[in-house]
Amino acid sequence: MNGNKARRHPGTEARSATTRLRRNDSVFFPPSSCLRACVPSCLILTFLLSGCTTEPPSSADREVLQDDTVAALHQMYAQDPTLQPFLSHSAGYAIFPAVGKGAIGIGGAFGRGQVYQGGQFIGYAALSQATIGLQVGGQGYSEILAFESPDALANFEGGRFTFAATASAVIIKAGGGAAAKYDDGVSVFVNPNGGLMLEAAIGGQSFNYLPK
Question: What's the rounded Cα separation, in Å, for the pair 210 and 158?
C-alpha cells in the first residue's frame, strides 16, 4: 500500500461508521444468513493473517509441537491400543495434536501438525477449515490422517488433498483402529479434548505441507 488516504467528503466517516444500508430511503439490514456465511471465512482469514505458517516460526515452537504430537499420539494409543498397528501398516500419517474448533453455527478449525513415513518425521502440515452447521462445544481435538498408499501420501504432500463437505472421521475409542477402513486412500481419527462433539465433521478441511 502507498500509505495515501483518499480524501473523503466531511461527514463520510460518521456515515460509514454505521452498518445500515439505505434502499429507497428505508433502512436495510443484510440477511442474517449472509452474515453467518461470512463468519467462517473471516475466521480462517484471521488465522492466516496472524502468521500461522505451516512450520512453527521458532525452534522453541517446533519443540513444543513435537512434545504435543508425542503426547497426543500416546493418549490415543492408550484409549485405543489397536490404533498403533493400524498406523504402523499405513504408508504414512499426519497428526495434528491441537486443532482449534468453532462454536455453535461456526465450524472453523485450524492447527499445525507433523507428518511421518516409516515411523520417521518427514515434515510439517497445517490444517484449516471453514464450514457452517451445527457445531456444539467449541473444544479442541487431536486428529490423525492415515494414508493407505504412497500415492495417497504424495497427494497430501503435493497440496492436492481436501475433504468433501460430507466427510467425517472416527472418534477414538477402544477397538476403533481394528475396525477402521480407508476411504479414497485415507482414514481419519479424532480425539476430542473436552466439551461435546456431536459428530466428527471434517468436511471442508484443507492442508498445506512443508518438508522438514
Answer: 9
